[in-house]
Design a protein that fits this description.
The complex is a heterodimer of chains A (about 260) and B (about 325). With about 260 residues, chain A is α/β, with parallel strands linked by helices. Chain A contains 9 helices and 5 strands, in the order H-H-E-H-H-E-H-E-H-H-E-H-E-H. Chain B folds into 2 domains: about 170 residues, Thiamin diphosphate (ThDP)-binding fold, Pyr/PP domains (Rossmann fold, 3-Layer(aba) Sandwich), CATH 3.40.50; about 130 residues, Rossmann fold, CATH 3.40.50. The chains are: A alpha/beta (about 260), B alpha/beta (about 325).
């Protein structure tokens, strides 16, 4: 898994350097959570992206999509070469997820706070159709400042959506600074417990803990699960780790080379 | 005696009809299901009815999620909350993704009455038609509402249907054809055309009768689909009459009048007058008093028609 994660992180750096814009910090913090999910938990078929019984993954923190695109490419949803076209005119890889252009994307995103609601809708459809596919939604810890997230949390609990699993990529940073400085969403686990969710707290870069959490979530009945994963924004590239500046700034050629060297 | 039925009642009844025929229909509401009448569907098909409580943004995107799984999701609330509060969800998730979410909002316009301005949405046509790829329909009566709702199911992608609160006269017939994007000419006259939608279609017909008594003959066009607007009929009619009045229960900016003006200015400019609400909020009162206050009555349409004809002569 760690090796796969390095491949993904290298893709992310290259893609963003080539694109000239995008979100390295937010993409890098999600990688381990995504790799574990796609390679060992999610039931899906890259050759049949619309397979009706597939598990679904919604990237609610849409700006982290470079990491998702890299995973989808490695899994065969589209060619790895496509990654070089990120954000370019005519590319199937739009700046924020677009379900119309990109295989493997379950909903168009980018505007924060909306994905958990979509995930709930999918979860409700599954229950209605008596199907057992699961829905995973990844959110950021800045994103949960959006009120709609809590509307969805309330509704998911009310509707006992135990086939829904939220993952909080808690990297502690947002655009204007640290979460606790700008708009503290702490204490995060308590809030979700208050809304009736089962809460699992983990280190979001520890594969054993991540896998364990996904397994545990599956067993919970009668309530949805949230995995609050402590992560490092920019994880994997020493000069990007935990830095506010690396939210929306892409590496220069030289910085990209340094980053890739670290990710060998 | 003309039958008076609220368009929202026809909506609820049609949902039940649809629910029986199509198992993919699901309905969502935000704690207003008795008023929007989605409760009728909810009572018959409780498994497919989702009351999302007082949380419209979540409701819209939950509908989107259901639609990604092959459901045809009808979403309802009062129009100010559906199209206002959840505008960005409609734009960024539903429309941008091209999903089969059918937004049917009730309590549009000032005819909401005593609840007052906060609940009287007079901007929703503008809000919805401004979104790329959205379709906007305002049926004129209960009979047309049923057809619009059925057409919405057949329509691929998002659609917005605007309904009111008050009972309105039934002016169309069951056998009349209905097609999204195709306006219907209810009356022909050579002097002026009145292009209207929703509750103002009935007022336009009354205005035409009043004008006729003074020797002025008006064409009345039921422009139930404001987007995509029927350009062909508009230009054809404009060329016949050379004076046009639009009438809507909506602000003058960005609704039916603006859409008609946009077509005619680019294709066949004629003197135009617009009936609508001029940069004011609504207020509490009974619908008939409010229609008088905001100049939405047949007599107001008559005045506007005469003005348009005067300008045509100049």
């Amino acid at each position: 898994m760690e090796e796969r994660a390095k491949v993904i992180r290298r893709h992310v750096i290259r893609m963003l350097a080539k694109a000239g814009s995008g979100h390295p910090g937010s993409s890098l913090s999600t990688v381990d959570l995504l790799v574990a999910l796609f390679y060992s938990k999610l039931r899906h078929n890259p050759q049949q992206p619309a397979w009706p019984d597939r598990d679904r993954f919604v990237m609610s923190k849409g700006h982290g999509c470079p990491a998702l695109y890299a995973v989808l490419a490695e899994m065969g949803y589209f060619s790895v070469d496509t990654l070089d076209t990120l954000r370019q005119f005519g590319s199937i890889l739009q700046g924020h997820p677009c379900m119309k252009t990109t295989p493997g994307i379950e909903i168009s995103g980018g505007s924060l706070g909306q994905g958990l609601s979509v995930g709930l809708g999918i979860a409700l459809a599954a229950k209605l159709d008596k199907k057992d596919y699961r829905t995973y939604v990844m959110l950021g810890d800045g994103e949960i400042e959006e009120g709609q997230v809590w509307e969805a949390a309330m509704a998911a609990s009310h509707y006992k959506a135990d086939n829904l699993c939220a993952i909080i990529d808690q990297n502690g940073l947002q655009i204007d600074g640290f979460i606790h400085e700008i708009m503290s969403s702490h204490p995060i686990p308590d809030k979700w417990r208050g809304f009736g969710w089962h809460v699992i707290e983990i280190n979001g870069h520890d594969y054993k803990a991540i896998s364990s959490a996904y397994d545990e979530a599956e067993k919970i009945k009668g309530r949805p699960t949230v995995i609050v994963a402590k992560t490092i924004k920019g994880k994997g590239v020493s000069f990007m780790e935990n830095q506010v500046d690396w939210h929306g700034k892409v590496p220069t050629k030289e910085e990209a080379e340094r980053a890739l060297a670290e990710l060998k | 005696m003309t039958e008076m039925i609220a368009t929202r009642q026809a909506y609820g009844d049609t949902l039940v009809e649809l629910g029986e025929k199509n198992k993919d229909i699901v309905v969502l509401d935000a704690d207003l299901s008795k008023s929007t009448t989605t409760a009728k569907f909810g009572k018959k098909f409780p498994d497919r009815f989702f009351n999302m409580g007082v949380a419209e943004a979540n409701m819209m995107n939950t509908a989107a999620g259901l639609a990604t799984c092959g459901k045809i999701a009808f979403v309802s609330s009062f129009s100010i909350f559906a199209t206002g509060r959840a505008w960005e969800q409609i734009r960024n998730t539903i429309c941008y993704s091209g999903l089969n979410v059918k937004i049917v909002a009730t309590h549009s316009g000032v005819s909401v009455g005593p609840d007052g301005a906060s609940h009287q949405c007079i901007e929703d046509i503008s809000l919805m038609k401004t979104i790329p790829t959205m379709t906007v329909v305002e049926p004129c009566d209960a009979v047309e509402t049923r057809k619009a709702v059925l057409a919405a199911v057949a329509h691929k992608g998002p659609i917005y249907i605007r309904l009111g609160r008050a009972a309105v006269p039934v002016i169309t017939k069951k056998e009349d054809s209905f097609s999204i994007g195709k306006a219907t000419v209810l009356r022909s006259g050579k002097d002026v055309a009145i292009v209207a939608c929703g509750a103002l279609v009935a007022n336009s017909l009354t205005a035409a009768d009043m004008l006729s008594k003074e020797g002025i003959e008006a064409t009345v066009v039921n422009m139930h689909t404001i987007k995509p607007i029927d350009q062909e009929i508009l230009v054809k009619v404009a060329k016949q009459v050379n004076a046009v009045v639009t009438a809507e229960q909506h602000v003058l900016d960005g609704g039916l009048g603006s859409a008609v003006a946009s077509v005619l200015a680019r294709n066949y400019p004629v003197p135009m007058e617009m009936i609508g609400i001029d940069n004011r909020f609504g207020q509490s009162g009974e619908p008939d008093i409010l229609f008088k206050e905001y100049h939405l009555l047949p007599e107001d349409i008559v005045v506007a028609a005469k003005r348009a004809i005067e300008r045509k002569k100049k």
